[in-house]
Amino acid sequence: MTLTISDLFTPAESGVNQAQNPPADTWLGKELAVAKTVELPITAWLPGGNARSILAITAVGMAQSDVMVSAFAQAGFLQWAATGTVIYVNPDGTTVTNPVTPDPSDAAANPTGALGWLDALGQQLYDVTRIAQTYAAGVLYLVNTSAGSIGPVDPGQFHVAATTAARPTYSNTTTLTLTPSTARDVTAGSVSGATVTLTLSSVAGLSAGSILFVGKLSPKALTGTDNYFATLLTVNGGTKQVTFTNGAASGTLSGTVTNGAYLPVSTTFQADFAGTT
C-alpha cells in the first residue's frame, strides 16, 4: 500500500456529526463498512442506540489519534514542522486549524511560549537551538519636578514610549514611586566648543558619570540644554562646577535659574512586547 503526503498529513473525520449516513472516508463510515462486511445487522442500529454509540465513541478516539499522527508526520520534515498545519473537524462539525509548531513568540497561538516540533527537529538533526525573543530592558531616568509624590505604581502600569518612528513602549518592572526630585540652582553657565560648564548651588551626590537633568535655561541665554539629561564628565567640589558635552548648546547663562537642575531617579523599564521592534 502506498501512502501519499495527503494521507499522512490529513486527519480523517470521525463522522459522528453525520451519524445518520457518515461518509465512507470517515472513521465511523469505515467502522460501519467493516461491520457490514462481517454481516452485522447495521441497518438495525439507530443513531443513539448502544451499538452505534460505541462505534461513535471509538470513531472520535481514532479521529483524535489521527490528529496527533498528522502532527507527528509533519514534524519530521523541516518545512512542515515550521509552517505546516493540522486541519480537523470536531464532533460538533466545526473545523479547527492548528499549527504543527505554534510560534513561541505569538502569545495568541502559544500563550506559554513553549517550544515545539520544529525545535525538536532542529536540535536533533541540525544541532540548532532556537534563540527565543526577549523583552528589551534598560535603565530609564525619571524626574519629578512637582511638589508631590507620584505613585506607588504597580509593575507594568507606568508606560513610556520611545521617540523613534516605531514608538515602542516600555513599562516599569518594579513598584515605582517618584518622590519630588532633589533640585539644584544653576548660578552660572558657559559653553566652550561642545563642553558645557554649569555652576550649581550644590554638587553633593554628584560625580563623574552621574546623570543630571538640566531644566529650562534658555530664558537666561544658555540655549540647547533645555530638558536635557546630561552625563557628567567632571565634578569640582570646590567651585561647584560640573561639565558635560552638548554640541547643540550655546551662550552664557546670565543670572540664577532657581531649580534649574535635578537629580533623577533611575529605574529599570522593560519593553511591553518581546522582539526586535
Provide structural commentary.
The chain is α+β, with helices and mostly antiparallel strands and 277 residues long. It has helices at 5-9, 27-37, 50-75, 78-83, 117-126, and strands at 85-89, 95-99, 137-142, 150-153, 159-161, 169-172, 176-178, 182-192, 195-200, 211-214, 228-231, 234-236, 241-245, 252-253, 257-263, 265-271. Strands 8, 9, 10, 11, 12, 13, 14 and 15 form an eight-stranded antiparallel sheet that branches. A four-stranded antiparallel sheet has the order 3-16-6-5, with no helix packed on it. A hairpin with a 7-residue loop joins strand 5 (159-161) and strand 6. Helix 2 crosses helix 3 (50-75). The longest helix has 26 residues, at 50-75. It is rod-shaped.
Largest sheet: 8 strands, antiparallel
The number of helices is 5
- Based on CA atoms alone, the radius of gyration comes out at 34 Å
Record field, number of beta strands: 16
Bulk shape: rod-shaped
Given as residue ranges, the uncertain stretches (5+ residues, pLDDT < 50) are: none
* Class per helix and strand makeup: alpha+beta
Order of helices and strands: HHHHEEHEEEEEEEEEEEEEE
Average pLDDT:
91
Distance between the termini: 50 Å
What share of the residues does DSSP label as strand, in percent? Answer: 25-35%
**Relative helix content:** 10-25%
Protein topology:
Layout: H1 5-9, H2 27-37, H3 50-75, H4 78-83, E1 85-89, E2 95-99, H5 117-126, E3 137-142, E4 150-153, E5 159-161, E6 169-172, E7 176-178, E8 182-192, E9 195-200, E10 211-214, E11 228-231, E12 234-236, E13 241-245, E14 252-253, E15 257-263, E16 265-271
Antiparallel strand pairs: 1-2, 3-16, 4-7, 5-6, 6-16, 8-9, 8-14, 8-15, 9-13, 10-11, 10-15, 12-13
Helix pairs in contact: 2-3
